[in-house]
Amino acid sequence: MDIDDNALTGVQLEQLLDRLEADLEEGNSSEAADLLARLRAKPLRADSLETIDRLHTLWMRAGDPEAALAVINADGAGMLEATPHDAQAELRMHLALYRLQIANHVNEEESIQRALAEMRAIVAEMPELNADRYRQLRVFDSLEVRKLGIALETIDLRHALNGAIAGRAPFRAWDLADYQRRRAWALSRHDSNDEARAAAGAAILALQTADAEQDIDENDWLRLGSALIGIAPERLADFQQAARALTAQWSLPQRRELEVRLSRLAARALYAQGDLPGALDACSAARHSLSSNGSDDFIEYELPWLMEAQRVDDAGRRAFLHIYQVEDEMWDGAAQLVHARLADAADDSAWWPLCAMRACNTEATLAAFVSKAQEGEQALRTLSPTHEALFGAVGEQVDAQALQAVFDAARALAEQRSPGHPWIARLAAVNDGAAGRIDATAQAARLYAAAQEGGMQDNRTAYALFEARVQSLGVIQTLKLPAFSLPSGLWAYNFGVALGDLLGEHLDRVPAESRNETYSDFIKLQIAAYEQGQACLERYFESGAGHPYDACAHLYSMLWMVSLAADTLSGLQRHAEAAALFERAIALNPRSNEYELADVKAMEEKVALYRAQANPAGKSKSWWQVWK
Asked: Which residues, including other chains, have CB under 8 Å from residue 277's CB and lie 6 or more apart?
């Protein structure tokens, strides 16, 4: 091939590329604007794969894909000529990949297909290729949602790459199932429903007929089920039976978590079969949270279904309680729905402005709530007249002033739509107390009334009421009042943890002669909360029925939670009970990662310590029976 001796190459080219990339990285607009001219100022020739990568990327950023392709074709050909055939595999594959990425970017379907065919040929002809480097390329994900022919060719290439990796021998069954899963999705997207169901069936069969040496576990069945249940809902029983068989020896709490996951598949199967009411009924089991903060709660399915069923008020309540619980970790779709309903002048539900009120609990929550509403550069206040009224005070940064302004505006709208709503009263009581609009006595009275009317038993309401009473009555009198009833393990534990923070703040203010008794009362209240939490979780594990925040085995086994309860018990010389609590947590620990294994080891050491303290003679025995 002809070589331009005047072309900038080698170290000099690399230095130029360094300068160009640095200018772009620093955001120097004048330098970025003339990138194309600087690239065209002198002939350039890449002499390494890394330089080809950098140079063609700069041409793409400058808006000249033809020049980028010329670098790949011309300079790549020169490199191939200088490279022995048995060392060309990676070079050829990278050049083909660059062509594929450019073709995808400029939307040239014939070029995409040529590049895919070239890559497929390299995989077939060059066994020395390190196929593992290419099997999960992001461009494949983009191509799999293009036209059906391109999608299927991409899926074939991905499968060929998997097959070329010797180290994936134990995963051949999964790779075949995944291949058919991807085909099912592509076919379904293009309304080839019969073929999609056939591919789904082939994916299921791949796992069902896997040899004993194949690495197949319950997660593979759950992943496959989650992907295919909308295409082949009639195959629900296959996923359920396989997952249950593989987990038959698990601890009861872990099996309960599995049943929640299977309940979610069942709900989605009902929906796919056109049974929307049945799917919504199934959410009573499917919405049990599988995360220790309550966020993994199936809202991404239940909320759209409620709207589809025109149960708008129920959808508003569901969105509110989700945002109330997880705050800035809210599901994007929940916030987006709230904003859409706020923008709809015909929707007068109070739940939507209540969601905005709750989002004002922290700056992080309001920032998340606001950011999820904005598309592109459109200002939030321009989305609707309601948005102008509620969020007009929100600037580029959310601050305390914006929090209060949004809260007040949302409160006014909510009260207009539903005067006397208990959740308005509950949120307003906390806000008014923090803003100094009411004293602690009034705040406690309003919180109590709202909680009674609205049936509120969550840890945040309980803590807000407890704190207001401490400010009003004093800590000694507040501790003499009846303990709170907390109906979920998550809420009970969180309340107990929050009490610990409050203890340190108020104990020094208690007269010295009452300090020991006050400390003891505080600890008793903490223990009562922890024991309520234990009872809720264990009741759910035994029966499968309980609060939506009682299903997470990891919540129970988390070392910091159990440690708080056990160390508190030990501090009261109840060493045997402390040891037994750790033993329960050990049995419940999923041991699914290195952190949970470390938790188990630490808890075993605690058990030994507390057993020794309980009976220095070494005669004590554990009275707790391990979960069967």
From this structure: 309
End-to-end Cα, the chain, rounded Å: 74
In the block, residue with structure tokens 């899926």: 155
Sign, CA torsion 539/541/545/548? positive
Are 234 and 196 a contacting pair, CB within 8 Å?
A: no
Length of the chain: 628
In angstroms, rounded to a whole number, what is the distance separating the alpha carbons of residues 389 and 406? 9
Across 116-127, average pLDDT: 98
Task: Give per-residue pLDDT as tens, 164-223.
Answer: 999 999 999 999 999 999 999 999 999 999 999 999 999 999 999 999 999 999 999 999
Type of residue at 383: L
Residue 133 tokens read as 């480097």
Nearest CA among 209, 182, 206, 210 for reference residue 196 = 182
**CA–CA separation, 202 and 222 (whole Å):** 16
Per-residue b/e over 129-153, b at no fewer than 16 CB within 10 Å?
A: bebeebbebebbeebbebeeebbbb
Residues 43 and 54: their CA atoms lie apart, in Å, by: 15
Per-residue model confidence as pLDDT tens digits over 260-312:
999 999 999 999 999 999 999 999 999 999 998 999 999 999 999 999 999 99
List pLDDT tens digits, range 596-610. 677 778 778 878 888
| Angstrom distance (rounded) from CA 613 to CA 295 | 39
Which stretches within 126-251 are classed as H helix? 138-143, 148-163, 172-189, 193-208, 218-228, 236-246
Residue of 383, 362, 500, 377 lying closest to 431 (CA atoms)? 362
Is residue 594 packed enough to be buried (19+ CB in 10 Å), middle (13-18) or exposed (0-12)? Answer: exposed
Residue 580 CA to residue 77 CA, distance in Å, equals 71
Sign of CA dihedral 345, 351, 357, 360: negative
Cβ neighbours around 101 below 10 Å, total: 21
Q: Among the listed ranges 273-287, 462-476, 580-594, which one has the minimum average pLDDT value?
A: 580-594
Q: What is the dihedral of CA 219, 224, 226, 228, to 10 degrees?
A: -170
CB atoms within 10 A of CB 500: 13
The closest of 236, 295, 258, 261 to 490, measured between CA atoms, is 295
DSSP 71-93: IIIIIHHHHHHTS-GGG-HHHHH
Any residues with CB less than 8 A from the CB of 537 and at least 6 apart, and which?
Answer: 253, 489, 546, 550, 555, 556
CA atoms of 362 and 352, how far apart (whole Å): 18
CA nearest neighbour of 532 among 558, 559, 580, 565: 565
DSSP output for 520-532 = HHHHHHHHHHHHH
Q: Which residues pair with residue 368 across a beta bridge?
A: none
72 with 45: CB under 8 angstroms? no
Distance separating alpha carbons of residues 478 and 480, to the nearest angstrom:
5
191: left (phi over 0), alpha (psi -120 to 50) or beta: left
Please report how the helices 332-343 and 351-359 are oriented relative to each other, as an axis angle in degrees rounded to 10.
130
C-beta separation of 139 from 100 below 8 A: yes
The closest of 527, 457, 360 to 465, measured between CA atoms, is: 457
Query: At 46, is the secondary structure helix, strand, or coil?
Result: coil
Residues 574 and 613: their CA atoms lie apart, in Å, by 9
Tokens describing residue 249:
């020896």
